[in-house]
Specification:
The complex is a heterodimer of chains A (404) and B (243).
Chain A: H1 3-18, H2 21-55, E1 58-63, H3 70-78, E2 82-85, H4 95-101, E3 106-109, H5 114-119, E4 127-130, H6 135-162, H7 183-191, H8 195-221, H9 224-228, H10 234-271, H11 276-279, H12 285-312, H13 316-334, H14 346-350, H15 354-364, H16 370-396, H17 398-401
Parallel strand pairs in A: 1-2, 1-3
Antiparallel strand pairs in A: 3-4
Chain B: E1 2-13, E2 17-29, E3 34-38, H1 45-52, E4 60-65, E5 68-69, H2 74-78, E6 81-85, H3 96-106, H4 111-124, H5 140-151, E7 158-162, H6 170-185, E8 189-194, H7 197-203, E9 206-211, E10 214-220, H8 221-228, H9 233-241
Parallel strand pairs in B: 3-8, 3-9, 6-7, 7-8
Antiparallel strand pairs in B: 1-2, 1-4, 4-5, 9-10
Helix pairs in contact in B: 3-4, 3-5, 5-6, 8-9
The chains are: A mainly alpha (404), B alpha/beta (243).
Chain lengths: 404, 243
């Protein structure tokens, strides 16, 4: 293999590729724009949704409200965010059915003699019914529970005082939990799940169009034969094309990473007020270097597999349909970072894509296990090499090049 | 000089089993002579020319181009030949200049040699006006000129044309025909395949008639006409092939 030929081929294919609008969109535009847009969209949707629900009043019905102690009745009627609907409104109707249908958000059932039972220190119960599938109903339930708990505490306090005991008796010590996770780990938990997936998918999509164009495209344009009869060897062509596809994949992956770091540091503050501190991931150089180390052989696998599929395909269209199927095959293992409780082990470290997804996830949360990183790199590099050799074999095979 | 010796290519096809696309074909093309390989679609013309150009390896037999054997030194053969077919396309996003220069580099030419050659070819083919435009924006005739310039950038002694006018409009195919004639006049060894007999009558010094992978007749156009007792190649073809 002559290096000068490979350089010639890489230069030409790079020029050609960078002039292709489709490639530019997937290699540059999507990785740069997708993440900020996604984050902006998701967060503003979430924030507005939460604010909307929080700001609204939930309607509740208290069945048997006349049995409530008077002071508790007042608390309910004065509670902000709760509007009490009169029971009479639903006369003749099944209140439980009405709740299920969403006529109101929660139902409090007060049994007969509740107030006097409490007064007489006889055991008493009160039921709350709500619909957990509805966010509004959940909020209503929480509010009602808060009011009742408060009231219960006051009753306890009063009773103990009646017996000449201090209210502190029931509270021998205070429990306060404090989060000691470093910022990086917290942020890692939040965004570590989605980032590996995004990087992997962007890497694949960035390499996708150049790969299709560089082999199936040659067949479709009728330029393949002119290459085959030129003095550069088949191996040189395959290697040159492989490098170009590899580069586009890596560039796309890193633009998406860069775009994410940028969005986290500069956009989040405006989007989520008060949450910005927690989300400001510090991507230090060693994290970025590790991500690069993991993405490199993975991009190598993608480039090899995409190129061999593209060499095999008779036309641009055929290659596209194979690549669409491949895309699904990549998404499934990449999604593993979303799954809670999936931790990297030696078995996971061998499986391509899965290993990269888990290692990037760990790297972002600041915990790197080098033994697994090493196994993953080795496994991915070997697979990338096999894919490259496979491409070369196919590019030398007449029945593949001139498939009828 | 191009010399085919018992060239044979067998394809393995799932449905049809073994297919003898080219079956013991031998012929010789001399420098300065335009040799036409005539036959209907599927006769084995393209396969024969692909073996000559080293895109395919012969199953048996061989061809020698300018003294170099295609089975022994395919890499060396490639710098001896220029190849052009009707289906040959261009890189749409490159300009004619970039495209021709790319192939010059692949053929191992120096930067200066490429520059010089491009000037000469673009003068000859009158291509300077669109030398820096993108190939995809060019007209059919312009595209053919780019293909021609690409095929001869390394000034090969032998030229192989596979159905060069198929699918081209009148102007483009005229450009190609003139170019083939010119190659012969310059003393290059020229072989081209076609299924259009009138084109062969106009262009060829010698012809070979190929059908179902076998070479049925060979000689100068007049010899072939005489032997078949006909006045044009089309009738001669029908008579020789015996259908």
């Amino acid at each position: 293999m002559q290096l000068s030929n490979v350089v010639t081929i890489v230069k030409k294919e790079m020029t050609d590729t960078l002039r292709d609008r489709r490639t530019l969109i997937f290699m540059l535009l999507v990785p740069i724009a997708a993440i900020p847009l996604l984050m902006m969209g998701l967060s503003s949707l979430m924030v507005s949704q939460i604010n909307k629900v929080k700001g609204e009043t939930s309607e509740i019905v208290i069945q048997g409200s006349q049995f409530l102690p008077e002071d508790l009745q007042t608390v309910f009627s004065e509670a902000s965010g709760l509007a009490i609907k009169a029971e009479d409104e639903f006369e003749g109707k099944d209140l439980m059915e009405e709740l299920k249908e969403g006529s109101f958000e929660a139902l409090v059932v007060v049994p007969e003699g509740f107030g006097s039972n409490v007064q007489r220190e006889t055991p008493a119960g009160i039921d709350i019914f709500y619909d957990e599938a509805e966010m509004k109903s959940e909020f209503a339930e929480r509010k009602i529970k808060d009011i009742l708990t408060d009231y219960k505490d006051r009753v306890v306090q009063k009773r103990m005082e009646g017996y000449g005991l201090s209210g502190e008796l029931l509270n021998p010590f205070a429990i306060t939990s404090q989060n000691v996770a470093p910022l990086q780990k917290m942020a890692g938990k939040e965004f570590g799940t989605i980032l590996p997936y995004l990087i992997i998918i962007m890497c694949f999509m960035g390499a996708m169009y150049p790969a299709i164009d560089l082999a199936a495209g040659e067949k479709e344009r009728g330029t393949l034969e002119t290459l085959l009869v030129s003095p550069a060897t088949r191996g040189e062509f395959v290697f040159g094309k492989y490098i170009v596809i590899l580069i586009t994949g890596i560039v796309a992956a890193f633009l998406s990473l860069g775009s994410l770091v940028f969005s986290l540091n500069y956009m989040v503050e405006d989007l989520f007020k008060g949450m910005s501190k927690m989300l400001a991931i510090e991507f230090d150089l060693s994290t970025i270097a590790l991500v690069f180390l993991v993405v490199l052989p993975l991009a190598g696998i993608f480039a090899g597999v995409l190129l061999s599929v593209s060499i095999f395909a008779r036309s641009f269209k055929e290659a596209q349909s194979y690549v669409t199927a491949l895309n699904m095959l990549i998404i499934l293992p990449a999604i593993v970072s979303f799954l809670p409780g999936v931790e990297i082990d030696y078995r996971m470290a061998i499986i391509p894509v899965v290993n990269a997804s888990l290692i990037i996830k760990d790297a972002i949360s600041g915990s790197i296990q080098w033994n697994f990183v090493f196994v993953a790199l080795l496994s991915n590099t070997v697979l990338a090499a096999i894919a490259l050799v496979f491409c070369k074999k196919w590019f030398e095979k007449e029945s593949v090049l001139f498939r009828m | 000089m191009i010399k085919a010796e018992e060239l044979t290519k067998i394809f393995k096809d799932k449905k049809r089993g073994e297919v003898r696309a080219v079956d013991h074909v031998s012929f010789t093309c001399e420098p300065g002579v335009v040799y036409g390989l005539l036959g209907p679609n599927g006769a084995g013309k393209t396969t024969t020319l692909r073996m000559l150009s080293t895109a395919l390896r012969p199953t048996s037999g061989t061809a020698v181009i300018n003294g170099v054997d295609v089975t022994k030194e395919p890499q060396k053969v490639r710098s001896q030949i220029g190849f052009l077919s009707g289906g040959t396309g261009l890189y749409g996003r490159l300009s004619p200049r970039e495209m021709v220069a790319y192939f010059g580099k692949l053929y191992g030419m120096s930067k200066e040699a490429i520059e010089e050659r491009i000037e000469k070819l673009f003068d000859m083919l009158d291509m300077h006006d669109f030398a820096s435009a993108r190939n995809e924006k060019l007209s059919g005739g312009m595209k053919q000129k780019v293909s021609i310039a690409r095929s001869v950038v390394h000034d090969p002694p032998a030229m192989i044309f596979d159905e060069p006018t198929t699918g081209l409009d009148v102007m483009s195919s005229r450009t190609i025909v003139q170019f083939i004639r010119q190659c012969g006049d310059e003393g290059k060894t020229v072989i081209f395949s076609t299924h259009i007999m009138s084109e062969a009558m106009r262009l060829c010094d010698r012809v070979g008639i190929i059908h179902k992978g076998k070479l049925y007749a060979e000689g100068t156009v007049n010899e072939v006409l005489e032997r078949s007792g006909t006045s044009n190649l089309e009738d001669a073809f029908i008579k020789i092939v015996g259908e």
